[in-house]
Amino acid sequence: MQTIGSALKALCGASPRLFRMIVASMILGAILFGKLLYTFHASAAQQAALKKEELAVYASLTARLGELRKLKEDGEAKLMEAEKRLIAVKKADAGVAMLQEAFRACSARGGISVSSGRAMPAVTKGSYLKIPMEFQFRADVLQLKELLSDMQTSPVLMGMKGIKIKSRGASEPGRLDVSMVVEGAMKKPLPDGD
Length: 194
Known about the structure:
5 helices, alpha+beta, Alpha-Beta Plaits, 22% strand
């Protein structure tokens, strides 16, 4: 029985150079084939690791599905509650008047007299219209704290967007000059004619 080596020698005849070239080509081919197999195996291993990671994330999300649904329901309930407190008018000017009335009611409960109120330009945010107003008044720290608390529970949704406070100093100890920007919101009015 002939071996591969003796068969190659017989094929190449007596030329050792041709024999070495064929053997070198076969070795190089075997090395390249081995590298190809290794690359394929490494790639398959990486893909398997990625799939395993994806499945772990999916399993975690599936396990937390009830918790995620509860968070979604709570968020929707809070949104519905907030939307009930939106300024319920169709025109921005009427929204400004309603916000001013609601803020003055909150401040009056704490004994604060608003000295001035100035409407600022309304800002569209998605399907809502933000209505900012700047109010100026004098108050002490406790009155200011009570006002902020009353604003949170007001039937009209409003929040403080900015505040500037200046002490009255020795002329009125404990009293503050306050300039507060309050923001209310309403559904964006439909264009006229709709």
